[in-house]
């Protein structure tokens, strides 16, 4: 892989690393799995989300390639929409309240053993039907990945991102099954949201300025 692609991948991962830690539907499922079914179930759900991420990356690469071949102006509009989405996501995260484990309701039915395959499926479906990664992948790739980058290289980026996602949720699964760590993390949840939100807004403005200078 040439230095051009290495730098492109690092830029991609810099934004994605902030994106994956912003709480959303995926985070809520991992949190619930950790508390209700334990570490193994949560990690398997995270792996399912990693597979779903490869699904998102596949149609994103194909879709952007088609758009670029048809209209460079439309492609530019999507890039600016991507910048706007980063800023929107950041502001939303900044204003979000902290975490509240009390909101997680657990019934006797929920406490029944759950298979690894079911956990994988739950993680895959949660991520696949979540509009957040759909919108973000479109904005992320349209803003940071050059349309001339070969599809195979782009897919390798996706593998790296999926690996990072699984690693993050594996860490969350481990931490949230330790009550003392979980309580401390939840207590600082509001500031965690503010920091990640500010970072996303910063990335959005930086990308906008870089695009304007092209």
Can you describe what's shown?
With 214 residues, the chain is mainly alpha-helical. The protein has one domain. Helix content is 81%, strand content 0%. The protein has helices at residues 3-21, 25-36, 39-70, 72-95, 116-128, 131-144, 151-176, 179-187, 189-213. The two termini are 24 Å apart. The mean pLDDT is 77.
Distance between the termini: 24 Å
Largest sheet: none
Low-confidence stretches: none
Class from helix and strand fractions: mainly alpha
Task: Give the count of helical stretches.
Answer: 9
Strand fraction equals: under 5%
Number of beta strands: 0
Rg over CA atoms: 18 Å
How does the overall form come out from the CA principal axes? globular
Q: Quick check: average pLDDT?
A: 77
Task: Give the helices and strands as they follow along the chain.
Answer: HHHHHHHHH
Features:
single chain, globular, mainly alpha, 214 residues
Write the layout of secondary structure elements.
Layout: H1 3-21, H2 25-36, H3 39-70, H4 72-95, H5 116-128, H6 131-144, H7 151-176, H8 179-187, H9 189-213
Helix pairs in contact: 1-7, 1-9, 2-3, 2-7, 3-5, 3-6, 3-7, 4-6, 4-9
